[in-house]
Amino acid sequence: MPIALRSEKRNRLWRGKTMQAWRDLVSELADRAATGKTRRDGVTW
Length: 45
Hints:
This protein is mostly helical. Helices cover 73% and strands 0% of the residues.
């Protein structure tokens, strides 16, 4: 497997994890704003 392809795959995976982390953060902030408390589980987008 070419190194560039492996690097691209790793970058895409990292980007996906980063986006998921941002979604979790944003939804937690939205929940906090809406309810005044954090909801640790069951957060879906």
